[in-house]
Write a structure and sequence with these properties.
InterPro entries: Glyco_trans_2-like, Nucleotide-diphossugar_trans. The chain is α/β, with parallel strands linked by helices. Helix content is 38%, strand content 22%.
Amino acid sequence: MNLAIVAVVVTYQSSSTIEDCLQRLRDARGIAEIRVVDNGSVDDTVDILQRHASHDPRVRFIANPDNPGFAAANNQGVADSSSPWLAFINPDVMVEADTLAVLCERAQPLGDCLLGVEQVDEHGRADDAVRRRDPDFLAMLRSPGSGSKLALARDPQVAMQYVPAISGAVMLMPRALFDRIGGWDAGYRLHAEDLDLCRRVRGAGGVVAIANDLQVLHVRGVSSRSRPFFVEWHKHRGLWRYFQRFEARQRSLPVRVAVWGAIWAHALLQVPRLLRAA
């Protein structure tokens, strides 16, 4: 079976990390194509992309004049490639030389699957959000604190841990599955689109899992730090869209109204923290 991988990277103001991210991808085993879609950066990101593209024919980039969102940009990158395996990589993720190739080899016998890996920061701390459950909006209403937590614990007893959802920072899946479920939902601008993709993979009969013994370095949120209000707005907007797509039809009108209120009340509660950090 052809295990060639296209790495799809979406950038926005990513000049501080995209150099290392692309060099790691270019050096990685199994990478046949690299597609970078830039969402209107005004820093040096596009200059870096041009330099890498001039040195490596596998690298091509699309420079969007505006920012259509993470999901839409990922779809653009996939459409401009042909490899049978798709790896979605954040611009602040640094892969090891064999990580994606090994993950692809493990994915092949699973058939329809969406796989991720462990993610650690610069200090070696694991990201709790790598393994996730589906959002439970009734639990959020009953207990706004604990009910909103999606992180699942790592199971040290297994190499491949099956979970409801994984982080969108590193994802690998077969193109055939991606095409069958219709790709990323471009109605999301930022956040919750990865939860949506995982749920639709499972709905199509696929499995979602984390390879616990593989890991990447994730610097985390470099572009998000420059626009915290934008990120928080779209994070909560994404949750509301997710609820509408997967749960709203099963809930009464009072519950739908309560969920809407809870989501946006939580958004308002973030404002003092964002102002202090500004």
